[in-house]
Write a structure and sequence with these properties.
0% strand, mainly alpha, 217 residues
Length: 217
Amino acid sequence: MPARVTGSARTELIADTALALLAQRGMRGLTHRAVDEAAGLPLGSTSNHARTRLALLEAAVRRQAERESEILTPAELPDAAGSRDSLADGLALTLHRYLSGDDHRDLLVSRYELALEATRRPELRAYYDAAGAQFREPLTRMMAAAGSDDPARHTLSLVAWSDGLLFSCAAGSYHATTPTWDELRSGFRELLHGMLDGGAAAGGTRSGARGGGHQEV
């Protein structure tokens, strides 16, 4: 990168470089000097932009959310009230896009580094959670529109399933695996139908048990 980068371009360069360093070197490898060197900026440039380590981490969290919004694109998801299967298709597309992008896996690793650091820094935790709300809130509305009787709880299950899959395929035991869109779609369909239709079936089972039917232990 050219040394003379100013304004918003420099802000973006610093934040992007911070994320790259987190993915490559971990939290200990993220310093103001390391960002300057990796970005090809004059020494002191990152300190002038983000004077403290917390400010640098906040800039990284903000940029992480911006880049993830370009990948996950909640606005692209279909109207959940129309079809659960179409919602599953949209969710599968976002995860497949994340896992199959050339530089997206590094972005996942930087997310995990920031999430772990947020557990140690309450001031960063508040910032991290606020950035993440932009993804959770649309999902909660979609779950309500899809017929969920407990949208907040179902959103937690949906996010946990998605995050677990992303972690497994980016840094876990399936790190060499990229699920196909069809595989992800099948998983989301099973999850959504299980959550949204399973309550009635479970209720029927409990009702039958109370009605005096044979009950196995």
